[in-house]
Write a structure and sequence with these properties.
The structure holds 2 protein chains of 2 kinds.
Chain A lengths: L2 H17 L1 H34 L2 E6 L4 H9 L3 E3 L8 E8 L2 E8 L4 H28 L4 H4 L2 E7 L3 H9 L3 H20 L1 H6 L1 H7 L4 H30 L6 H7 L2 H28 L3 H22 L16 H11 L5 H27 L1 H5 L22 H21 L1 H4 L1 H23 L4 H5 L6 H25 L7 H11 L3 H32 L1 H15 L6 H18 L3 H16 L8 H20 L2 H8 L3
Parallel strand pairs in A: 1-2, 1-3
Antiparallel strand pairs in A: 3-4
Helix pairs in contact in A: 1-10, 2-10, 3-4, 6-11, 7-10, 7-12, 7-13, 7-14, 10-12, 12-13, 12-14, 12-15, 13-14, 17-19, 17-23, 19-23, 21-25, 21-26, 21-27, 23-24, 23-25, 23-26, 24-25, 25-26
Chain B lengths: L1 H16 L1 H34 L2 E6 L4 H9 L3 E6 L15 E8 L2 E8 L4 H29 L2 H6 L1 E7 L4 H40 L2 H6 L4 H36 L10 H28 L3 H20 L10 H5 L3 H11 L5 H27 L1 H5 L4
Parallel strand pairs in B: 1-2, 1-3
Antiparallel strand pairs in B: 3-4
Helix pairs in contact in B: 1-8, 2-6, 2-8, 6-8, 6-9, 6-10, 6-12, 8-9, 9-10, 9-12, 9-13
């Protein structure tokens, strides 16, 4: 790498970005307008609330009010009595029954006028209530003070600074984390897709420069611009904060060192954002396409950022290992002045590792000529079936689109259907229709080969045997994970309800609903429909990983996200190694059967699980990975 | 008319065939409910973990035993008894979540609770302690009243009930909240839909230089532009409506968890929302497309469009202002007025006069937009000009 060339390219990109008004307008103008709008909104809100405060409430009275109440209301300037019940904001009916003064306030809870009238009358009635009670007490020589022996006063020891930090810790970390990715997006697109669209990328490659140099320069330009715009963003935000809260408190809360620490921690995040955006930007052929690819990326950042800003959540060992979540939580702890150096370092390391991973992704994209200059094709779902040519595999975009549709249908189906058809019929229905039938229909419609797309081959017995060991290692690792998180999560909410209903089923029914059905249907979707086309297009490793991610996400269970992911990896690995779906189905059924029939009394311990895990992993390695060529040759069935 | 129809069909077909545009529009709509489910699940875990945490409370040794025994009986409170009171101690060490000092004698007891409001555990401890003190007080109150023989009289001298005119308080409040949120979501996503595809229909076409091709066929410019406008409006309406349907399961999920609550989102209500959405979509489409023809590239149109988008968003947020009433002023602001009426519709009140007025105003503003758009479109200088 020649740094002189890189710095020249950086300079070129800098000038190009600075000269590009449209990008700058898109990035900065909203930042100036938004606070202004916010301010205007607040002003407007205060005007309307002032108006509401002085508006008169009309009240229609039924029955003869006690004099004291009537007089107090009459003295209230903002309360008017009316004779017409239709015009009233509130109907107040009164009755004296068996020594009880009964007041009934009837008003519209959906409208401000009604609620306001209720709020104005309430203190008068409460005072009346107390007066009446006081009279009763006095008749026995008592008073309110003697009624309540204990006086309570509550004193808050938090300093103003702590309170301000606490209130800011809920929103600021979220904003800063989100800005980190949003800021770099437009720059990244400008540096990549725009260049691609204008056809200037070829020109750049024609000069004596290495690709690595070019991409490093682009990345640096993107990061620098990202940091700059983040800085300007925050600066603007700080400018407008005095309108909402006292800034002096904030100034004292963030000294230079903490600010530096925060900044250092944001940098890896910006690197992750930039490299992902540049990578995806290179993927896209047009500006429009890049929009489509970047939308999911924004969500990838948004979800963990929101999770991190859950009230009550604090940075700990586990959270510090999850990128983005950790940054959000770390910032929270900075605002509350509770920074832990160890967790800070861990957070930084994790994010640095992830930024390296996304850099690898970016370099991969840049190194692939086909991606850089290749062109996309049309959309195969809208084409009539008789126009579709026969093929071996379903196309990649159709796989993703199909998976997305199935996921959405599955989620809604499993939420809504139990109201109409019971838990277990729903379970069977969503499994067979969405997971089983739908992929088959798509494969049929697109005229792909069932045998190839689903992997319908008789597996070698050897492969099946090795598969069992793969499963044992994944299963034991999942149990180890469970042991680790047990102290932190004391119950698994989604399972508790199901457990009771399960008890009422016969063992055979249990096996059918919980083991056999998911075993077959989920495998058709994930280890067939999703895995095979992915394997063909992007290679086995990523195919297994992506299908396992989808598999774990679709279970919608936050606590068991990791165990399902591990099992997904295991099933995918076996399906790839044996080139057949059947072992995966067998293992899935086996896994679920054990999960339901394993007696709860079995005592799990690290001492038992860790050796099992290591042992089984060693067998798997010997079986599938060592002497690769021989086994694979043996498994290869034409 | 048939020519307009032809153009409309062509634009819709290209839009729907464009998988990428569909992803941009539909993905957020479909993904939000999923995020919400995860988020709700996750916060409930965090919350329940917090509820399980045991509060450690330092208690003054002078505290009456009748109160102390209450705390000791609570499995979620660990009591530490000590003689000296550390009023100004900080709870940062986290050894103690809150402390109580006690002064006075039987008839005049003075409890002071110290805590730190910036600490969740401390906040929780003080909540638990206050509840115990309240119970403690009411226990004595009942005892004293019972002894004096005036317990029943004291408790029942005055009764105050609140009732809603429809008789269902919860349903009414839910209707109000939904009336605030659903119109906002529908209109915002509708606008997002028009924003996303309008650039492609206008600036995108300009950039691809396919406008010249269209002009070469015997179709009037006005017909082209009307066809494009309708395509944009339809996509906006679809994305607004898809949104309602994708949110319904979530709404039902939340409602199902609150027993005794029922909301009715009736077909006439949805029809009404749809009706109010149409002029808004025409308005925003016309302006976005006009902008798209004015600028040169797709990217520029998106970039400047985002500013317009924010302006529209601001109008959408106005009805969220608390205490804002339906007045002549609010009825005359485009977009805002539609949403005010949608809000009214959720509360079950429909006014024909207001509806007509709002439709009229919004359509008039749209017409203005269309005329301007047409002007822009007719001028070759703007459409093909390389001027700056």
């Amino acid at each position: 790498m020649r740094f002189k060339t890189i710095s020249q390219i950086i300079k070129k990109e800098f000038l190009a970005l600075l000269r590009n008004y449209k990008v700058l307008v898109g990035v900065f103008a909203p930042l100036i307008i938004l606070p202004l709008l916010f301010y205007g909104y607040q002003e407007l809100a205060s005007v309307t609330s002032r108006e509401a405060e002085v508006s008169v409430s009309t009240i229609y009275v039924e029955g003869e009010l006690p004099h004291w109440v009537y007089n107090s209301m009459n003295e209230e300037l903002l309360i008017n009595f009316t004779e017409d019940s239709d015009q009233a904001d509130l109907l107040l009916s009164y009755d004296l029954k068996e020594g009880t003064h009964q007041f009934v306030l009837t008003y519209d809870f959906g409208r401000n006028a009604g609620i306001r009238a209720g709020e104005r009358i309430a203190p008068i009635l409460d005072e009346f209530h107390q007066e009446q009670q006081k009279k009763i007490l006095e008749s026995r020589g008592l008073d309110f003070a003697s009624l309540y022996p204990a006086k309570i006063s509550i004193e808050d020891l938090a300093s103003e600074r702590e309170v301000a930090g606490y209130s800011m810790s809920n929103i600021f970390p979220l904003l800063i984390t989100l800005y980190a990715v949003l800021c770099v997006m437009s720059f990244a697109v400008e540096l990549t897709t725009a260049e691609k669209e204008m056809g200037t990328l070829e020109t750049l490659f024609s000069i004596p420069i290495k690709r690595v140099e070019l991409i490093v320069a682009k990345l640096m330009a993107c990061v620098v611009f990202g940091v700059l715009s983040l800085g300007i963003n925050l600066g603007l935000l700080l400018l407008f904060i005095p309108k909402i809260m006292d800034v002096n408190i904030m100034g004292s809360n963030i000294d230079l060192v903490t600010f530096g620490a925060l900044f250092v921690n944001i940098i890896p995040l910006i690197f992750i954002g930039s490299s992902m955006c540049i990578g995806l930007g290179m993927f896209a052929n047009s500006y429009k396409e890049s929009n489509a690819y970047l939308t999911p990326l924004v969500f990838m950042f948004m979800i963990p950022a929101y999770v991190g800003s859950t009230p009550g959540l604090e940075l700990n060992l586990i959270y510090s290992l999850i990128p983005i979540v950790n940054t959000t939580l770390l910032m929270k702890s900075v605002f509350m002045s509770q920074v832990n150096i160890g967790l800070f370092a861990l957070t930084f390391m994790t994010n640095a590792l992830f930024s390296i991973m996304s850099l690898v992704f970016m370099f991969k994209v840049f190194g692939t000529e086909k991606l850089l200059f290749g062109s996309g094709k049309g959309f195969s779902f809208t084409v009539k079936r008789n126009l579709i040519p026969k093929k071996t595999f379903v196309d990649l975009d159709d796989t993703f689109l199909g998976l997305a549709v199935i996921t959405v249908l599955f989620i809604y189906g499993s939420l809504l259907l139990p109201n109409y058809m019971g838990t277990f019929s729903t379970l069977a229905f969503v499994q067979y229709v969405f997971f089983g039938l739908m992929p088959i229909v798509v494969i049929w419609y697109l005229k792909a080969s069932f045998k190839e797309t689903l992997g319908l081959r008789v597996p070698p017995l050897k492969g099946l045997f090795g598969g069992v060991w793969v499963w044992i290692s994944a299963f034991s690792l999942a149990l180890i994970y469970q042991l680790i998180i047990m102290p932190y999560v004391n119950f698994v909410p989604t399972l508790e309800g199901l457990e009771d209903q399960l008890q009422q089923l016969s063992p055979f029914a249990k096996f059918f609903f919980i083991a056999l059905t998911p075993g077959i249907c989920e495998e058709i979707l994930f280890r067939g429909f999703v895995l095979r086309p992915l394997e063909k297009k992007i290679g086995a490793t990523w195919a297994v990983i992506i299908s396992a991610i989808a598999f774990s996400l679709i279970h919608l269970d936050f606590v068991r996200l990791v165990p399902t992911f591990l099992l997904g990896l295991a099933f995918g690995y076996v399906a790839i190694k044996t080139r057949s779906i059947y072992p995966a189905i067998f293992l899935h059924v086996l896994n679920n059967s054990i999960a339901i029939f394993m007696p709860a009394t079995i005592e799990l311990s690290y001492l038992l699980l860790v050796p099992i895990f290591i042992g089984s992993l060693a067998i798997v390695f010997l079986f599938f990975e060592k002497g690769k060529s021989r086994i694979i040759k043996g498994l290869h069935i034409k | 008319m048939s020519k307009i129809n032809l153009i409309l069909k062509k634009e819709l077909r290209t839009t729907l065939r464009d998988k990428k545009a569909l992803i941009t529009i539909l993905l957020p709509i479909l993904i939000y409910p999923v995020i919400m489910i995860f988020f709700i699940g996750f916060s409930s875990i965090v919350q329940s973990n917090l509820n399980e945490v045991i509060s450690i409370v330092a208690i003054d040794e002078k505290t009456p035993s009748s109160f102390l025994s209450r705390l000791e009986d609570d499995p979620k409170i660990d009591v530490v008894i000590r003689s000296v009171s550390h009023e100004q101690e900080s709870f940062e060490s986290e050894e103690i979540n809150a402390s109580i000092t006690f002064e006075g004698e039987q008839a005049n007891q003075m409890f002071t609770i110290f805590y730190n409001s910036a600490n969740d555990a401390s906040q929780q401890a003080v909540d638990r302690l206050s509840k115990h003190l309240k119970d403690y007080n009411s226990f004595y109150k009942h005892q004293i009243l019972e002894e004096a023989g005036i317990n029943y009289e004291f408790e029942n001298i005055v009764s105050i009930y609140e009732e809603d005119i429809s008789g269902d308080i919860g349903g009414r409040i839910i209707a109000m909240v939904l009336g605030m949120l659903l119109p906002l979501i529908i209109v915002l996503y509708g606008i997002t839909g028009t924003y996303t595809i309008s650039s492609d229909l206008s600036a995108g076409e300009k950039e691809r230089e396919t406008l010249e091709t269209i002009f070469s066929v015997p179709v009037k410019r006005f017909e082209i532009i009307t066809g494009k406008l309708w395509a944009c409006v339809i996509v906006g309406l679809i994305s607004g409506m898809v949104n309602i349907f994708s949110l319904l399961p979530l709404v039902y999920l939340i409602v199902a968890n609150i027993p005794g609550l029922n909301i009715s989102i009736s077909i006439p209500l949805i029809m009404y929302l749809f009706l109010m959405l149409i002029p808004v979509m025409i308005l925003t489409s016309a302006i976005f497309i006009g902008l798209g023809f004015f600028v040169k590239t797709y990217q520029e149109s998106q970039s400047y469009g985002s500013l317009l988008f924010i302006a529209f968003m601001a109008l959408c947020y106005i009805p969220m202002i608390p205490n804002l009433e339906l007045t002549k002023l609010t009825l005359s602001i485009p977009i805002t007025n539609s949403m005010m009426l949608m809000k009214e519709a959720f509360l079950g009140s429909y006014s024909l006069l207001n509806t007509l007025m709002v439709l009229g105003i919004n359509l008039a503003v749209s017409l203005l937009g269309i005329v301007l758009m047409n002007k822009v479109f007719k001028s070759d200088w703007v459409i093909f000009g390389g001027g700056n």
